[in-house]
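Not sure how to ask, but would you mind making up any protein sequence you like and the tokens describing how it folds?
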Amino acid sequence: MAGEGALADGWFYQPTIFADVRPGMRIAQEEIFGPTTTILPVESLDDAVRVANGTPYGLSLSVYTRDVRAAFRAINELEAGIVYVNAPTIGAEIQLPFGGIKNTGNGHREAGRVALDQFSEWKSIYVDYSGHLQRAQIDVEM
């Protein structure tokens, strides 16, 4: 939709919050890259994990709690490439591998030291400059 006022020259929409969303709704099942958030009421941590894992995507998510056991349980059970505890999802951490699971991201973990594996072709090299033929490691005298 075309914007209004200062947004009239492009295709924009104002930041939007959808409240009382149910897990089966389309807006709860698709990734929305825009100024949008959905609120899905849940009854418990079990319910929250079930709802979060019940989507085909898993880029990043947050859990807020003062219960350290609940936090570590969520970290272990939630299906996402990045899990924040008591912090917002900013989408990426430049020092860490970034990417989602399931149907999100591009299937690679880029950034941090992992980027070396993604953008390099590793080769192992052994050079013997002794001038003598070496035996294989398994070729030993008994």
